[in-house]
Amino acid sequence: MFGFIKSAIKGLQKPEYDNVGNSDEYEERRYKPAKWVSTTVNKISAKEATTEGFHRLFAFISGENDKSTKVDMTAPVTTWVDPGAGPNCESSFTVSFYIPTEHQEDPPKPTNPLVFIEDRPEFTAYVTKFGGFANDEMWVQKAVELGNAIGDYSKFNDEQYYTAGYDPPFKPFGRTNEIWFVKNETSLKGSSVDQKEEQKIQYSPVNVTTV
């Protein structure tokens, strides 16, 4: 699996966005509408959830879809984090791969019922970057720091957020991680979470008959 990712790492497609503002501590980006392939995992650990979600999505791009099509790896891997009620409660993590341009109009349909195609609308995000290998505590710390840097909590959804990772696990240096807070002019909660069942129906898995 890692060999496939490594061979493509230099030419990964990324979702399109415009930079619409900057400060010393974060930037403001407007992302264009796009389709993503997604899966939701409920876990206490973000690392365990994203690993499980990544493997489901990697199976999809490796041909586990109705067309048996191999789809190029893209970046970043985003995770929509909907925190649980407490430190020992499960949180909801929706892990997503951006679908490459050549498949945006008619993406392959997942055959795994836990995987769905997400229509992510245009949205604006406050984004902060940091390096290194991010663990669960670091993601939370950076989210808190970004919220404090923005200051006005009425500007963004402070209950959920995205994490974004751009690098494979074998890359030791020069890693890029990001936290995205969605600006309140747009809502992605429905895109990543509430519309999950609708997306599953729209892109229903093919029936497989075993003999």
From TrEMBL:
The record's listing under SUPFAM superfamilies reads: Probable bacterial effector-binding domain (SSF55136)
Q: Which domain of life is it from?
A: Eukaryota
* UniProt family annotation: Belongs to the HEBP family.
Protein name stated in the entry: SOUL heme-binding protein
Organism source for this protein?
Answer: Littorina saxatilis
